[in-house]
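User: I've been going back and forth on whether these two constructs are worth ordering. Before I decide, could you fold them both?

Assistant: Sure. I'll take them in the order you sent them. The first construct and its structure tokens:
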Amino acid sequence: ATPPPPPPRPVLNTLSGFRRVGNWILAGIKDNLSDGAVLEAAPDGALRFVVVINKPTELREYTLPATGEPALAAVYPLTNFVDTEGVALLRGRAVVLSEERSGALVEVTLPAVSSGGGVIDRAGASKVHQTGYGDPSGGVEGVTYSPEEDAFYFLKEKAPSLVLRMDRQPPNAKRTLATVTSVGDVAGISHVPGAGPGTDGDRLLVISDKSKQVLLMRPDGTLVGPPLALSVPSKSKPEGISILPLDAGPVCFLTFSEPAILQKYCGPE
């Protein structure tokens, strides 16, 4: 007999009922935790994720057991990169980094985790995509990737705050989805795949450091429901967000805040 098809992925229509279920300080980071991306999730709930720091410019890979503390697995110093503010998973161990000042989205592959780390030089990037939104236009902050569309969603931080989409393949067509005025800035973004064909059920999670809130958006940029206020210290700055794989159980995401705070939020069961 053929196994039953998996249940359709839920469409995320509200952040109501989401609450903080985890709060950690990432060891070894003094400040400038800028973003993070979940690389994989094990059936037992253990996670592997990577974070980007913009000073010193580096990636750090951690594991997070289902219960317990995050543990450092590898450090990857970044050379010849400029002001790395965002990171997102492409596939496997390939990630995309956003450079705030240059406005570029840079694709690199992490060395095998067994390496324990190693330098990643920008010259070895597999692809560099110019968004046209570097200085002085306000700079590119967060980035996320939609594999179904083979497209990036990315943020211009402020003056005005923009949510934008760009095809990964040439000619890299791009469009502005939304001008965000409800919060003072936009810092991080994560793509939430939805059920069914097309992108109607897809969602975007956008985090704001000035307001310390998470916004839920449709892929066309319209807001869905009220924002979620984050439980972070007053002096911290929420900078990044990454959805956990939606295989089963409640919808959860990680947030990354300066100086070095990792949090996990989950919706109702």
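The second construct, handled the same way:
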Amino acid sequence: MAFVSGFSVVARRRPVKISSCRSQKALSRNGRRSTVKMTDEFQDLADQLAQEMGGFSPPPEIVPGVNGMEYVLMNHEESRQSVRVYKFGATLQSWTQNKREVFFTSKEAVFNGKKAIRAGIPICFPQFGPYGDLPAHGFARITEWEVIALEVLEDGSVYTELKISNETESDLIKSWSGDKKWEAVYAVTLNASGLETALRVTNNGSEPIEFTAALHNYINCSNVDKVRMYGLDNSKYMDRLDGDKLKDEPDDMGTGVAITEETDRIYTDRENEVVVFDSAKLHIVTIKKTPTMSDTTLWNPFGSDGCDPGWKNFVCVEPAVVSTPAVVAPGETWTGAQLLALDI
């Protein structure tokens, strides 16, 4: 499936309901339904062959995770991808392809339903960092989200939606919302193109809504000194370690941007894709994003005081809307999305 400005899934969602009942009509690989009623033995054999050949995928399911916290398990059989999305924070904690983990999970990650899960893709909304009156990075990553869709689409994509709104039980949400009426839906899609995540914010009230946001990707790496980022040069960035001063990122002459010290930057007006290359693992993560997320953040604490002890094994590259906040008019919906692909 091609990535079309983050609206590819939204525009053509038509669920294919798959039952575990043996008499259910089978979904063939070309998307058509068989009218043959299969015996239990034949169905078992068909399921086994489909899995071995990369056939149809099972629908997502909610299962218990660490400390009993529930997550959505998504498997795309054809591309051998798997994802875990915790309901708490709608945190996409793990993404594997051919059993290779793409995201970092901190050994200090806390799964208690109170503290943000330091792993995968925490959602920063409706505030990025300290830029506002809320706690750092807002309330989305520390709120229990409601699962509203668990589907397999007609093209074989595996699809999940989670939602929060001004009506979600949370003191922080009530305080920020005031008279605002809104809902935020987080859509996660797995297909042959990779992993797509999309945040959709709808204004159901009568006044504009303003916010900042980011999809906080923790990319797993062998060692941060073996990683290079391509697509960030010839641009400007806000240096968060130097009072948000605007600085230049010069032409990297094809060598990529390296992290050699504590780094916390917001690259502004960067609508192009970013490629993260790990020379030790010999794998490439490509991050494409919608123009609505015009910024890209780059972060690694590089051993600074109080930082995560696993700092050598991750780099955060995040599609974001920070330097110019998003504004959603009454009755309108804002969508910020990314498509990640792993090349190994």
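Notes on the second construct follow. The mean pLDDT is 87. The chain has three helices and 23 strands.
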